[in-house]
Amino acid sequence: MESKYSILKTYGRLPISFEKGEGVWLFDKEGNKYLDALAGVAVNTLGHAHPHFTSGLKDQLDQFIHLSNYVNIGEQEKLAQRLASMTGMSAVFFSNSGCEANEAAIKFARLFANSKKVSDPQIIVMENSFHGRTMATLSATGSRKVQAGFEPLLKGFIRVPFDDLDSIKKIADQNKNVVAILVEPIQGEGGIRLPKNLSSYLNDLRKICDQNEWLLMLDEVQTGVGRTGRLYAFQYSDIKPDVLTSAKGLGSGVPIGATLVNEKIESIIKPGQHGSTFGGNPLACRAGNLTLDVLEQENLYLNATIQGSKIAHAVREQTKSLDFVIDVRHQGLMIGIELGYDCLELMTLALKYNLLISVTSGNVIRIVPPLVINDDESEFLVSNLTLMLKDYLKENKA
Ligand SMILES: Cc1ncc(COP(=O)(O)O)c(C=O)c1O
């Protein structure tokens, strides 16, 4: 629908609106159904209108939505406790989004630097990374497109290639102002890029951080909450980070961000040093608790692992003959299909095949469906996606 009204044009929008959602499906006004392989950009962990989730939220609406952080909030305490015990972290700061969770992480790294009397602290960040669009997080982000026009950027970031330990070791030898590494275990916006070996990459990063007394700060905003088959992707390794950020899937659609820290960081933060009016309110934390309930009750970790492998394997098999499909990468239900050229128009084309998908990094189709997707739905997704790619190839050749 062409609108002459006043939504600022920061997004390119698809020519579609939806009326209703149920599980992995979205329905338009005419009743056509679309498989939601975008899930609000890796947000709708439980799909749409999950009965346990919606009835719990309705309950919460009847009690109260918002209080303030001047009082104790039961749902917040419960969610913090669960997240801490499931990750081995010691305390949680709640905010409302991924960039805020990372903003807090960056501020905590500065406080850590301050406690060590480092006056010009530097954080090592990665090429091709994405951490958000606030001034600090866009400065940390490794994408000129995200930064352009917003200079001067925040100082204090040193950039190295992703999955390249030698570059980090070189910096360790030369620069005594480094206090932390901030990294996504798997790059999301950067094109679903996995390190060659996730577990050893994280183990090695941990080792370097320990040797140099740096913080290891993991941005699990996109990889978190079961998406990769574990609650957090770092749980594929034996390590624990010092700081862990989470958002997106944590509230299954209700905005929430979380910055988890270990004792070392917990001990240096004092009341008044950080805050958020809405952060950790009863509605958002109830959404987080309900999401964790269903993740466990329905073992969505296992489902993400099984369905993710099935989808990636089938797409690989069925697109073998298409030489413009360069790579199919995945960890759980975080799936990237890299094409040989930019393919943003596939987002619109996919609607004709009853699919909602996204394209990231210009040429990578991103498939991040709700974690409740079942066998039949995965098959629908694969067959419609491969059909679309075959037709797309024919059209491009014609
Ligand atoms: C890894 C990562 N970090 C941070 C963000 C920013 O999250 P938000 O858009 O909720 O601020 C994103 C969003 O895509 C992300 O993928």
Question: Could you walk me through the main structural features you see in this protein, from its secondary elements to its overall organization?
Answer:
The chain has helices at residues 39-42, 51-63, 74-87, 98-115, 135-140, 144-147, 165-174, 198-212, 263-266, 282-297, 300-318, 346-352, 375-397; strands spanning 20-22, 25-27, 33-36, 91-95, 122-126, 157-160, 178-183, 215-219, 243-246, 257-261, 325-331, 334-339, 355-356, 358-360, 364-367. With 398 residues, the protein is α/β, with parallel strands linked by helices. The protein folds into two domains: 20-49 and 299-397, Aspartate Aminotransferase, domain 1, CATH 3.90.1150; 52-297, 3-Layer(aba) Sandwich (Aspartate Aminotransferase, domain 2), CATH 3.40.640. The strands form three sheets. Strands 4-10-9-8-7-5-6 form a seven-stranded mixed β-sheet, sandwiched between helices. Strands 1-2-3-13 form a four-stranded mixed β-sheet. The mean pLDDT is 97. Pathway: Amino-acid biosynthesis; Amine and polyamine biosynthesis; ectoine biosynthesis; L-ectoine from L-aspartate 4-semialdehyde: step 1/3. Belongs to the class-III pyridoxal-phosphate-dependent aminotransferase family.
List the topology elements.
Blueprint: E1 20-22, E2 25-27, E3 33-36, H1 39-42, H2 51-63, H3 74-87, E4 91-95, H4 98-115, E5 122-126, H5 135-140, H6 144-147, E6 157-160, H7 165-174, E7 178-183, H8 198-212, E8 215-219, E9 243-246, E10 257-261, H9 263-266, H10 282-297, H11 300-318, E11 325-331, E12 334-339, H12 346-352, E13 355-356, E14 358-360, E15 364-367, H13 375-397
Parallel strand pairs: 3-13, 5-6, 5-7, 7-8, 8-9
Antiparallel strand pairs: 1-2, 2-3, 4-10, 9-10, 11-12, 12-15, 14-15
This protein binds pyridoxal-5'-phosphate.
